[in-house]
Amino acid sequence: MLIVATQDPRVRAYCQLPESKASAWGAVLPIDAGLTQGDAQQQLIKYLNGLHAGENLCILAHGNDEEIGDSAAGGKNWGWTYKSLARMLATEVAVAPGIVLIQSCAERVDNFATRMVVRLEGSWQNIGHLAGVEVYGYSTAVGTTQPIPQPGQLSTNVQSQPVIINV
Q: Helix axis angle, 112-123 relative to 82-92, nearest 10°?
């Protein structure tokens, strides 16, 4: 499952092209453009509720080490902090995904994905089903037309770095 969590028309269109390699993640599920933050969050939760055991999950958005979503601030732009996404994974995902990729720009080694995993490990008691799940992220910029790594190739992708959920 690949969730497109940005309204950027370039990113949304690119995910539909074969060269994006988005289809390697299964269903490509864009959040409906133009929704308010609250409505976009409800759709994201609906998608996370539909995750099947062992299914790989990629969330594609603009971002930095603190937040993913749209690139601009204000208006109807979306944004999810690593804390809010950690909460959604802990409370809305009832099964263990295969692997998770946050396909978003980051700036440092303690990037969005790493911070999200640390928050998961320290804030929720009943997430044993997520134990051992590998979460990949980036510590650099990610081009909007860069092919999305295939799930089976993440461990050999020098740009992505894994964090394993330990609970």
A: 50
